Amino acid sequence: SAVISQKPSRDICQRGTSLTIQCQVDSQVTMMFWYRQQPGQSLTLIATANQGSEATYESGFVIDKFPISRPNLTFSTLTVSNMSPEDSSIYLCSVVGGPSHNEQFFGPGTRLTVL
Amino acid sequence: AQTVTQSQPEMSVQEAETVTLSCTYDTSENNYYLFWYKQPPSRQMILVIRQEAYKQQNATENRFSVNFQKAAKSFSLKISDSQLGDTAMYFCAFMKRSGGGADGLTFGKGTHLIIQP
């Protein structure tokens, strides 16, 4: 499976500020996704990061709040904008791989705390 | 839209015992995949096992196996000879099979499995 890294691994931010999270993969991948895991909760899909075009957002998530970039097949960023304490979560990126390209592998996550 | 339900918030068993985690799902799709992921305290999501809906044979990976009942929309995970390192959150997940590539995953709420020494 691909090796996925995320930066930063954790951060503490003030409300009203923005944070950009990076996801780097050691090989080219077609599909990349961003998820949010709120404290004590399961994972929720935020968006599909499309290379060369705008991200596809799930219901309840909007581009103004979570802008995503995907400049190439190995890298993506997620920005959490105008943060509030409710944005405190773990943010994870995932890529599709496996023999049949239908398995998702996750990065280590970014733990964000908003004060 | 699809939903995934895990009805056991927490389970605890003794080391070496066998434990079964339940998962049910609801979908109108006919082609899809089901997964079990493990999330230890390190928070890294680890793929445990995968099942393709069009395959009747249940998937097996070493001590992990599934009981896939497509008509009942049930997908349980059996862990045999449980080990202390199996202690983690376990998430059941659904993915629609898409002609244009993979779709995002829909997760259940998770089951916290504790293996007691």
Describe this structure in words.
The complex is a heterodimer of chains A (115) and B (117). Chain A is 0% helix and 51% strand. Chain A is an all-beta fold and 115 residues long. In chain A, the strands form 2 sheets. In chain A, strands 2, 4, 5, 6, 9, 10 and 11 form a 7-stranded mixed beta sheet that branches. In chain A, strands 1-3-8-7 form a 4-stranded antiparallel beta sheet, with no helix packed on it. In chain A, a hairpin with a 6-residue loop joins β5 (43-49) and β6 (56-57). By secondary structure, chain B is mainly β. Chains A and B meet through β4, β5, β9 and β10 of A and β5, β6, β10, β11 and β12 of B.
Short description:
Helix content of chain A is 0%, strand content 51%.
Q: Count of helical segments of chain A?
A: 0
CA radius of gyration of chain B is: 14 Å
Radius of gyration of chain A: 13 Å
The fraction of residues in strands of chain B falls at over 45%
* Average pLDDT reading of chain B: 94
Helical content class of chain A = under 10%
Distance between the termini of chain A: 36 Å
Number of strands of chain B: 13
- How would you classify the helix and strand content of chain B by structural class? mainly beta
Rough outline of chain A: globular
Question: What value does the average pLDDT of chain A take?
Answer: 94
Percent strand of chain A: over 45%
Reading the helices and strands of chain B in chain order gives EEEEEEEEEEEEE
- Biggest sheet features of chain A: 7 strands, mixed
Total helix count of chain B?
A: 0
Structural class of chain A, by secondary structure, is mainly beta
Taking the sheet with the most strands of chain B, its summary is: 7 strands, mixed
Series of secondary-structure elements of chain A, N-terminal to C-terminal: EEEEEEEEEEE
Shape of chain B: globular
Poorly predicted sequence stretches spanning 5 or more consecutive residues of chain A = none
Largest interface: A-B, 26 and 23 residues
